[in-house]
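Handout, section B. The chain below has 356 residues.
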Amino acid sequence: MLAKSSSKSTANIIIGVDTHKSTHVAVAIDNHGVRLAELSIPTNPKGYKELEAWSCSLGTVQAFGIEGTGSYGAGLCRTLLAQNHKVIEVTRPNRQLRYRHGKNDSLDAEGAARSVLSGQATALPKGQSGSVEMIRHIKIARNTAVKCRSQAIITLKTLIINAPVELRGILDQIKGKVGLVRHIAAFKTSEISSTLASAKMAMRALAKRWLMLNDEIREHDKTLETLIEAKAPSLLKAHGIATMTIAEMLILIGDEPSRIKSEAALAKLCGVCPIPASSGKTHRFRLNRGGNRQANAALYRVAIVRMRNHEPTLAYVKKRTKDGKSKSEIIRCLKRYIVREIYRHICCPEKAQIAD
């Protein structure tokens, strides 16, 4: 534990925190940018309380600027928010400044405080104590189960292709993936004395794993449907927007939708806002490759579904095609409209009910 102080101030102060797995380093500056003090704490409840008490002893805390509020700084962020402190999420320091001035934890913490003071950092952290955090936990478990299930079935099919001829001939006659897996899971294994016996044992293990993961994914789906129906019931009725899409958007927005100031801000978070790329007499916009790519992919899937059987979307596609827009350009426009709809249902549910 380390604490350094150059002077004591009763003015308004800002605390910058550089977060790590085992320790956090905090630096206090006043509203004129003068560095006041430094503190290092362990990452546990006792350390969080010590940081809060130390901060309040220096003056009136305007805000805490914390790096990694969704990872190493999550515990400290929750503690400070519970005590009604203002917390600002700070992005990683500018690499050019790091190159010129060097890097250590104290400098990073001071940089976090100065980014809050200058107004460069303004984002509010996502709340991590509500139903959206529950959805995030369940979705993480589901995603890993889906990956493992895919790996199991791919490996099983590879073993079938390479299996002894007599076994492969029997399995090739079974139609349907689930039926095939259940048939293999029912294999009776014996002592490994031939390649046929070893192939059956390996296939049986993979088939049982697939069935177990399939049941696990179904349980996660039921849990997610229940949580999402309670959190965003109106959005479930929208055409082409399914449970996983809503889960992805809720995780992006967080438990406090008010932190998203406008639909344009949500579009930027999803990477569906155009980026100006004009120069001289050329005025154009380019594709935004930033933002949350999982949310962007979810919006793409909704757009594709609506382009197949959603009458208003089909009419829009027809109109924009006549205007000379390409398919990819039309999809980008559709994703922007979908973001507007999602924003209305999640961030402004009262307006969505009036519109419906």
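Note. The longest helix spans residues 195-231. Compare this with the example in section A.
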